[in-house]
Design a protein that fits this description.
The protein is of the alpha+beta class and 220 residues long. Helix 3 packs across helix 4. A hairpin with a 3-residue loop joins strand 4 and strand 5. Helix content is 22%, strand content 38%.
Length: 220
C-alpha cells in the first residue's frame, strides 16, 4: 500500500444533541438540521486497554469548502447508504452544509418516503440525536494525521489528529457511534497505526462492513 493509498474510516465521534426539526417552518416541518462534524472534539474511544486509550480529533484545517463542494455526500440513516435522505453532489442537491468555528452543519428536507417519515419521527422524539460521517485520509502520512501522547488517569492517551481529509462520503443520523471497539478488526487497525505499519485493504473493508452490521443490530 503506497504512500498515496487512502484509508476509509468511519468517524466515531457522536455529535449528541445537535439534531432538531426546524420549528420556524411550521408544525409539519420536515427540515432536519444538525452538525455532522465537530472540530477539536475528541471522538469516542477508538481503542483502550489497561495501559492506553486512543481517540481521534478532527482539526478545522481538515475540512474545506472546496473539499465539500467536490464531494458526493449522501445523508443516510443508521450508517446504511441504501437509506438515503438527501444528497449533495459537487456542491448541489437536496443536502446543504456550512462550515463554522464549531464544525460542519447541515440542513435538508426529509423526503416523503418511509425512510424520510422515520427520520422525522425519530428526530422529533429524540430517539436519534446524533451524527457521524465517513471520510478518507492518508493515515500513514504524518502531514495528514499527527499523533500526540500524554498521561491521563494512569494511562497513556494517544490522540490521532486528522489535519487533512481527502474525501467525505456520507453524513448519517444515528443514536450511537458505530465503531466496533472490541472487534479484532479494530485492534488490527490500532496496532497498524501504533506501529506506523501499512494495513492490508481487506482489513479496512471488513472493518467498514462490521460497522454497518453492528449499526443494524443496535437499531433492530
Amino acid at each position: 500500500m503506497g504512500k498515496d493509498k487512502q484509508v476509509l474510516i468511519r468517524r466515531t465521534l457522536y455529535t449528541a444533541n445537535t439534531l432538531h426539526i426546524r420549528e420556524s417552518d411550521g408544525e409539519n416541518s420536515r427540515k432536519i438540521t444538525g452538525y455532522a462534524i465537530l472540530f477539536n472534539t475528541p471522538s469516542s474511544t477508538l481503542y483502550e486497554d489497561s495501559e492506553e486509550v486512543i481517540r481521534e480529533v478532527i482539526s478545522p484545517s481538515a475540512v474545506t469548502q472546496e473539499l465539500l463542494d467536490q464531494s458526493d455526500i449522501k445523508m443516510t440513516l443508521f450508517h446504511d447508504r441504501h437509506l438515503i435522505l438527501a444528497r449533495s453532489k459537487s456542491g448541489a442537491g437536496s443536502l446543504t452544509y456550512h462550515i463554522d468555528n464549531k464544525g460542519v452543519s447541515f440542513e435538508f428536507d426529509a423526503p416523503h418516503t418511509a425512510d424520510g417519515d422515520k427520520a422525522v419521527e425519530l428526530v422529533k422524539r429524540g430517539d436519534i440525536d446524533g451524527c457521524s460521517f465517513m471520510f478518507a485520509t492518508r493515515y500513514y502520512d504524518e502531514d495528514y494525521v499527527s499523533r500526540t501522547v500524554s498521561a491521563r488517569d494512569g494511562k497513556y492517551e494517544k490522540i490521532f489528529t486528522v489535519n487533512k481529509i481527502t474525501g467525505i462520503y456520507d453524513f448519517t443520523l444515528t443514536p450511537d457511534p458505530a465503531y466496533p471497539d472490541t472487534s479484532c478488526q479494530a485492534r488490527e487497525l490500532v496496532d497498524a497505526l501504533r506501529e506506523k505499519k501499512e494495513m492490508p485493504d481487506d482489513i479496512v473493508c471488513r472493518q467498514v462492513e462490521e460497522m454497518r452490521r453492528n449499526a443494524h443490530l443496535r437499531i433492530n
